[in-house]
Specification:
mainly alpha, Rossmann fold, two-stranded parallel sheet, 8 helices, 4 strands, about 40% helix, about 10% strand, globular
């Protein structure tokens, strides 16, 4: 699963480094920061994905998030505030929806490894980024599929889940990730220029600063 952001780029690079042939999956879900899909295409190409699909799932039809509606994106929050509670940038059930579609493509393709760049340390408090969610989805995947029932077990890999943002950046450097082609901002200008003040921009900046990069 490749969003075009920093974490998913490092996850793709990690999977490639482990010898996997990677099929990149991105989502056009009605997000205000749709510019990230341009980065996703660049990341998939740069890291040698065998194939890249962009699937349209318009979650903006439901709203419920600052990323898929007219609700303002929070700006200038302290790192303490970012780490507390679930912000309005949470998109209802987003990772559940995305992982389900990744599972469908994996089963149709005869693949049994799914990679997601979730992180449970330096993140915005989203419930679908936690280890217990990943474990629960993996159990569901093996209960709900023909492949799973027949003994071909799916594995959901979340290699960054216990890393800080700085740790992710250090790992990405070792793996040769070009961070300049990634995009993290929740509320960029039309040309993709990041706002520098949303939670995602602030966590990204903090990570690079702490990594000494």
């Amino acid at each position: 699963m490749v969003s075009g952001g920093l974490d998913s780029a490092v996850t793709l690079a990690w999977a490639v480094s482990k010898g996997y042939e990677c099929y990149a999956l991105s989502f056009d879900y009605g997000q205000r920061h749709k510019f990230e899909l341009k980065s996703a295409r660049k990341v998939a190409k740069a890291l040698g994905a065998a194939r890249h699909e962009v699937v349209k799932v318009d979650l903006s039809r439901f709203g419920g998030s600052a990323l898929t509606s007219g609700v303002p994106v929070p700006k200038g929050r302290s790192h303490k505030a970012i780490g507390h509670g679930i912000p309005v940038t949470y998109v209802p059930a987003r990772n559940t929806v995305f992982l389900s579609l990744a599972l469908a493509w994996a089963e149709a393709s005869g693949a049994y490894d799914i990679f997601i760049g979730v992180n449970a340390l330096d993140y915005s408090g989203y419930p679908d980024c936690r280890p217990e969610f990943i474990r629960a989805f993996q159990r569901t995947a093996n209960l709900a599929t023909k492949a799973g029932v027949e003994g071909n077990k799916f594995k959901v890999h979340a290699p960054l889940i216990k890393l800080t943002k700085a740790g992710i950046i250090r790992l990405g450097r070792k793996l040769g990730v070009d961070f300049s082609i990634t995009h993290s901002c929740y509320d960029p200008a039309p040309d993709g220029t990041p706002c520098g003040r949303c939670d995602s921009c602030l966590l990204r900046e903090k990570g690079f600063r702490e990594a000494g990069v």
